[in-house]
Hints:
With about 375 residues, this protein is an alpha/beta fold. It has a single domain, classed as Alpha-Beta Barrel (TIM Barrel). It is about 40% helix and about 15% strand. It is built from twelve helices and 13 strands. The chain has helices spanning about 5-10, 40-55, 70-80, 100-110, 130-150, 190-195, 210-225, 245-255, 260-265, 275-285, 315-330, 340-350; strands at about 15-20, 60, 85-90, 115-120, 155-160, 165, 180-185, 200-205, 230-240, 290-295, 295-300, 310-315, 335. The strands form two sheets. The protein has an eight-stranded parallel beta barrel, surrounded by eight helices. Strands 5-6 form a two-stranded antiparallel ribbon. Strand 5 (about 155-160) and strand 6 form a beta hairpin. Helix 2 (about 40-55) runs parallel beside helix 12. The chain is globular. The two termini are about 25 Å apart. Residues about 1-10 have low confidence and may be disordered.
Amino acid sequence: MTAVDSQETSPGPVEISWFGALCDDDYEFLGVPEDHLKSSWPHCSNIVKTADRLGYDNVLLPSGYDLGMDSTSFAAAIATCTEQIQLLLAVRMGEMWLPQLARQLATIDQMANGRLTINIISSDIPGAPLESEPRYQRTREWMTVLRALLNGESIDFHGEFVDLVVDPPRMRTVSGHCPPFYFGGFSPAAKDTAAEHADVFLTWPDKVASVGETVQEMAAMAAGYDRTLKYGLRAHVIVRETEAEARAAATRLLSKLDDDQGEKIRQKSLDTASAGVARQNALREAAEDDGFVEENLWTGVGRARSGAGAAIVGDPDQVLAKLQAYRAVGVGAFILSGYTHAAEADLFAKHVLPNIEHGPLYEGSTTVPG
């Protein structure tokens, strides 16, 4: 048995997270924008407060520029409106001055009483694109310095992108330590960055065997840095009382989609040329005519969405079995979403959540390996 087998496939709870839809990504009919579903404080705060009330462990607050709301401002506000759910705040590396970012994150963690987690984003900065290699070098430097500042360490760092001598801010997280870093990426540079600096490696929906291969690959890479990782899967979900009803809901979701409009939506994202998006496109192209590429894994969502482009579709037992199959190959956390987000959060909480042992990967801003 390998180290990842013993560590990641042992029985135990998984982290079940929902999605905050801050980036204009909520639809009744995919690709058909409606004003009342666009990102706004009333709409997005309702999604997060719904997930909190329903007992989800964490919620992803995504970051976009052309799309939707500022994730950091939103996190500060929603921290005071929620009780138990953790906040997985997406932070784009290079976008803010590092000492100020550290102070902001520590302040938000204080406002959330230690419920902050951090999703590291390595996409281009709007208006300032970089090739993959230098972009991930910037991300490495930022992750190194940000972790140190949030751990209360003084900085004397001189790199290609960060040249900084500064003491840490007085404001500290509740635990006094850096919250865990969740990080995803599929290029060689991204995987190496994750292996050395991340705490949770996030992958997008794929066949169960392929996800297992990714877990094994990343475990080996992390071991090369004398580290271990936890693993998360970002996917959509459509669960109904019967499989026929779930498939009908998937068909309805695409029933008004114009393919040209779907392409425009995909191209708005800053990550459209990434290796991960290329893999999602290939997965969709490999699917059957009904969009299913594997039992209960439907790729239709990717026709009008960059990034995570597949959904787990089925009745409660089928959806639970699919999650358990991913768990068996090493996934310890799921970031789920569905259209519309508040309604699907309620359906998943009704049909699946009570039947799966779940809880946060990390309690508050727990100390994690650096």
